[in-house]
Amino acid sequence: MAEGTNDKAGSGRRKTLISLSGVTKKYQKNGKDLEAVSGCDLEIAENEFLVIVGPTGSGKSTLLKMIAGFEPPTSGEIRLEGELIKGPGADRGMIFQEYALLPWRTVLKNVELGLELKGVSGEKEKKALAMNYIDMVGLTYAAGKYPVELSGGMKRRASLAMILVTKPKILLMDGPFNALDSKTKLTLHNEIVRIWEHEHNTIIFVTSELDEAVKLSDRIAVMNKRGQISRIIDNPLPRPRFGKEALAPDFHHRFVALREEVMNEVKIGAGLEACTI
Amino acid sequence: MKMGSKEDNIQSGSGMIVDFIKGRAFYLLGILLFLAAWQIACTLKGFGDFSEAFSPLSAALALLEMARNGDILHHAIPSLRRVLVSLSLAIVFALPTGVLVGYFRQLEQITYVPFQFMRMISPLAWMPIAIIIFGVGDVSVTFLLWLVAIWPLILNTVHGAGRVSPLWLNMAKTMGAKDMGILSKIIIPAAIPDMLTGLRLAVGVSWIILVPAEMLGVPDGLGYFILDTRDRFRYDQLMATIFIIGAIGYLLDSANRWLISKFAWKI
Hints:
The complex is a heterodimer of chains A (277) and B (267).
Chain A: E1 16-29, E2 32-45, E3 49-53, H1 60-68, E4 75-80, E5 83-84, E6 92-95, H2 107-118, H3 123-136, H4 152-164, E7 170-174, H5 182-199, E8 202-206, H6 210-216, E9 219-223, E10 229-234, H7 251-269
Parallel strand pairs in A: 3-8, 3-9, 6-7, 7-8
Antiparallel strand pairs in A: 1-2, 1-4, 4-5, 9-10
Helix pairs in contact in A: 2-3, 2-4, 3-4, 6-7
Chain B: H1 13-23, H2 25-43, H3 51-54, H4 56-69, H5 71-103, H6 105-119, H7 127-134, H8 138-162, H9 166-174, H10 179-213, H11 222-231, H12 235-263
């Protein structure tokens, strides 16, 4: 375990927002029961940045979908502020691996969608609120473009603004930066952290990239191929984790050490032999 | 909605005309060949003793005569009115039906067999029943046209509403959308291109069915006028009427294609 001594020491006092107890999801496949998620217990605190990692098929996405309310658990329960989650809701904004922009709307109109669904009707009010988040994700110059005219990175940014404008308490992100080039990815990492610090939401972020996990997280939950959470690792790295702070003498060493720790846990979970550095 | 816009090039008048013709030379050639073949076949008495009356030249003269004496407007306007009234009624009925059937899967299963069964029946087969219920006249014709127009509209709308990306639906749900919001913000706009395709097919098939439907005891309309010219042995006017039917049909279809290009979105 990492010997975290920064502000994360206070995480025990933070209010629990989401709690999972014994969450299990079974699927029928070729007549056999398959446990995608198995007996997961997890408490996620308000304003926490939790990253879930694990080998392919470890049930990370399924777990996220259950928190989003798209699928009910087979057994166990998921509570949000004590209330059982029964279906999707505006308090949990989910950002999907594939962006879901509406092709017949411009970026601005796509971002306004969430406001329309909420019943905000004043054109000026809608536009001002939407532009606020379009500015935040750095798409001001492309507000009038249609999705077909956007690059991959711009689409992710637009999807992010679409969800952020509805002011969800919790952001659920399922590999949102997969398949982006590394420069775009680095920029978006910094921006999602900046937005998270600004909006004070709670983020549950699923990825299979360990650099991403170490860079973004407060804690990292590692899932194994049986669909269990095998370990939760605190991330003691100080923030911010980019720019000149990332050039501090021991930052790189601590970063790599934590990544190796997570890597070993993932390997064990995948049934491979762990190695030590 | 802006899509597939054409580039406008600003040029002097005569240059534009030359360019216009250059770009469409083969379309014009097609029209000229068609008219020439038609004229030659008639001159060679390819259609029997009355061939001369069928020729494009006789038809053109008859067309002028009908334009002057008001026959064209007198018959084209009632025909257009019947088609537009029945199309409007078909749209009002078919689009909401299609959206609901496309969105709710149980409804699609409930309606599948009846719809597929009904759409294969020529509306003219219903003609005697229409006349028993509505009597001879406008209402029966409108009913038959309505009956033929609803199927392409319903089935295309069902297709459009049903193939909406599940991602869009999940995204709307994660924003807290309920059924009404999903229908009005996602399903209906997503289905608009298919609705327009349905409209184009409906207009085409209505215009085709119009002619036989108007032969069923109405006092005007292009279908009526076909029989009337036959009875008066005015085969030149008959050809002119056929030309008018084709021309109006072509224009209606062009208007539809324009609508589609204006409202279709790209993925």
